[in-house]
């Protein structure tokens, strides 16, 4: 095919489709693949189906338990890896002599849905965004200590430990209430926890994120009613499906509210709740890391958000 034909061809796979394909091909599990690239399962499945429709052949054989690559899927895997590696290398063509700064991001938030941070990560020269999407904030800090990362973008800072780590505030992410659309409070533009006091809250153990847990619990203790908590399912799709059935509610970062169901709705919290129920995002670096390249990236992240 000539370059002229390629330039006018509107039926080429997108980078996002290839990224989704590669994640599923490596994990052979749609749920794990979605978690790895920090999206929910339905849009991942749509990307794969669109790619299969575009190419004209099946990439996977799948049932409720097992996913396998087809022969064409195996062939595409080799080529997709080459294409994505080449595209990733374009960023470094003009930065051969620069230090590569390794940045890990917490799986608590979907940074691709936070324009200020996503824009910074995609435009700052010399960044190497590592595959940290399957890590929580505690795991990122451990990798930072081991020098596997240079910067960790985490949700909340743990004041109990981390004396060897410095934290730089970047952004505040609002929490949104995921609730059944059938609930009487669903017609309100803003909802307080008192409005949904009849619903239990899906919640997580303190060990998962002690700082965030303590921050929310301070408000819970001031409520006029005993807030019932139930264990949060490990799969977010399962949790949201149960909410849609009317079983419970959940507090979620706004950037993670991508799953759609007509029986589910996302509601802003009332002002007196939202000022306490949020996640502060910090760029964490080691105290003894004095490299100007690392400091410059942290300052750029702060600048991108404040300039928005």
UniProtKB/TrEMBL annotation:
GO terms for molecular function: DNA binding; DNA-binding transcription factor activity. The lineage of its organism: Bacteria, Pseudomonadati, Pseudomonadota, Gammaproteobacteria, Vibrionales. The keyword Hydrolase does not apply. Residues 13-70 form the HTH lysR-type domain. This is LysR family transcriptional regulator. Keywords: DNA-binding, Transcription, Transcription regulation. GO terms for cellular component: protein-DNA complex. PANTHER family: LYSR FAMILY TRANSCRIPTIONAL REGULATOR, TRANSCRIPTIONAL DUAL REGULATOR HCAR-RELATED. It comes from the Bacteria. CDD domains: PBP2_LTTR_aromatics_like. Gene3D superfamilies: Periplasmic binding protein-like II, Winged helix-like DNA-binding domain superfamily/Winged helix DNA-binding domain. The keyword DNA-binding applies. It comes from Photobacterium lutimaris.
